[in-house]
Predict the 3D structure of the following.
Amino acid sequence: MSELVASLDVPSRSSRWIGACRDFIGRRPLGAIGAGVIVLMFVAALAAPLIAPYDPVAVDFAAMLAPPSAEHWLGTDAFGRDVLSRLIYGSQTALVVGFGASLLGATIGALIGVASAYFGGRIDLFLQRIMDVLLSFPLIILALALVAILGNSIPNLIIAIMVPMIPRCALVIRSSALSIREMPYVDAARAAGFGHSRIILRHMLPNVMASYLVMLTAFLGQAILLEASLSFLGLGVQEPLPAWGLMLRGAAVEFAETAPWMAIFPGVAISLAVFAFNLFGDSLRDALDPRLRTQ
Amino acid sequence: MYNRIRMLFMLATSMVMAAAWPALAQDKPRPGGELVFAVPSEPPSYDGHQEETFGLIHPVAPHYNTLLRVDPSDKTGTKPVGDLAESWTVSSDQKTYTFRLRRGVKFHDGADMSSRDVKASYDKILNPPAGVKSLRKAAYQAVEAIETPDAHTIVFRLKWPESSFLLNLSSPWNFIYKADTLAKDPRWYEKNINGTGPFTFVEHVKGSHWVGKKNASYWDKGKPYLDGYRAVFITSSSAQVAAVRGERAHIQFRGFTPADRDSLVKALDSKIAVQESPWDCVLMVAMHHEKKPFNDKRFRRALTLALDRYTASKNLSRIAIVRDVAGIQVPGTPWATPPEDLEKLAGYGKDIKAARAEARQLLKEAGVPEGYAFTFKNRGIPQPYEPLGIWLIDQWKQIGLNVKQEIVEASAYHPMLKRGDFEAAMDFQCGFIVEPDLDIARFLTNSDANYGKHQDKVIDELYVKQARATSPDERRKVLREFEKRLLDEEVHVLYTLQWHRIIPHSAKVKGWTITPSHYLNNQLDTVWLAQ
């Protein structure tokens, strides 16, 4: 018997991951391209001090408004700062704010959604009305109001972007959790005398994980776009810190005709990042949704 | 032979005359036409005595006269000439000013203007009735009495001689109102117009435009040249540029950025003319004297020594509305600091390496460690606050300071300064006439605008001394002492660069001269439109 078990070809954990990745790339090439761009962004953010050719905040008047060249591949801005270096360092800001806001927003939203579905009754009613109030504000307006109240530091920016995401995630997760609540294994857990927190955390949350991941990736793109919008409006990251939205404002607008590279490259970076997260999120949803998996 | 030479000479003369004729014809004022100009903000009320925005001056000033005005052809904007005053005399002790008023001046409602009206207007400015605001009351503290010996004479008696008195009477805000109207309702002028100026009021459509029509019975015969004017309220700067580019507006009197100027010149070529001038506005860094380490003058001196103002002047002027390196007065004006004196002040020398070495030494002596961090609060307005903020932070980084910028939204900015809720913050000064009394009063210990809360009796004494100086040389000497104390010895504030005013306007607009103030030269009586 022991020999039989030993001879079975059970794939290791890492080879299962490799297999899943291959499968994902093969079945969903667009999603894989999105994932590739995201990986590139991560590498750029983590290795910024090593790969950025210049200090992103150092003013160099001798190189003011220089077009793309061998010295400055993507040109320089109105203060002679290297656009490529600012883009590379800007990916740190985008990812910190994007991940921070969407991770917190999706997680809090998921917890509220599951709790709301599990408890039902007055708790559900109360939580859902709060979510309705938050949902009644357009995303950007709520973020603008919050950042105006809290002030414009990076932690406050994360909070301002996170809050509008909570009700959106809570609604989606609640609808998934409502069907899970009726499952026999949840009844069985209740009958076994398990506490609410154990049932929610051990039995319900893992079963809404697919929806959660899809929401998370979708929010990532939105959060990056929102951070760029707020920075563009002067309410996000402040100069001289490098941020993509910030690179689009001020002199980039004034010199749009004579130095278009100042606006084009950050614009491309924002579009590419949002597009990549959306492609990856869509493919992830398709891969995780059993109804779409067979199509 | 002689006749042939004479004929050749006459022929040459007539050819030169013929060639020059179009230019000569262009320089002769042409009557008619409507001047259209963009105004970036709107008047909160119509009363110049209580407002401080160019949003009032630009559309409203053409309806009024003042007692004196700044010579509309003087580029420095510092030469007083008569407006309603025909002539004046000053007593030998410089404490009595007697003005002879013009005769035949009428208000737009047909009433005659007399010294009673001038007195009533100045009484309102100096001693406003209860419930009436007067913003410039403090500028006339020297006035002891105003007398009207006859209908066309007005006398100002002063408690002490005051160097700036004539320029103070040239203030573009001091519209002359009708005495009878003020007697009935001192607030009437907040919502109505009735002046003696070159244009009468037609309409004001809020959020849209303001229209004025030529005053046919204007006292200065032959003027104004224009049939009328239309002020169009446009808040967006890109829309203002588009209006001038599309020839829907002839001019915007406040100013455009270097990038806007370049794009307009490129698009309109010979159809656009550009006038530039140093601007009587400057951004300064206020440093809170009650907070460490800003209470230590070695630290403040290090901050000014770190600035390479000359390199910035050359380069920032390409992207921002700043240019000249200056002291406490606008370059090119009577009290400006000569370059050789300026270079002696801390942070104004040409050897930036030596200055920064001294700055690092001072930081060390003050016990400020390498990488010391503080927050610099800046105003949430793009020009020129944003570029200057970025530049300052870069300059301070070069002496080992790590400065974080916090942008304060425009409406929260002044309350922040007044509360003293900052370590270092961008502060600004914008004058309506280049005159030391007006420009440097903010540095007095008890001034409301002393945001850094410095206490300096020497500064206070020097201010009074320069204001009461009876000879220009004496005043100049005291002003240099004041400047040295303010910017070098104590470094109470830190001056950045003088603003630079750029007015690209339709080449058709003639008879208007730029000055260092965007509050001056808006009566429009000398302006005309070429074909």
Remarks:
- The two ends of chain A are 40 Å apart (CA to CA).
- Chain A is about 75% helix and 0% strand.
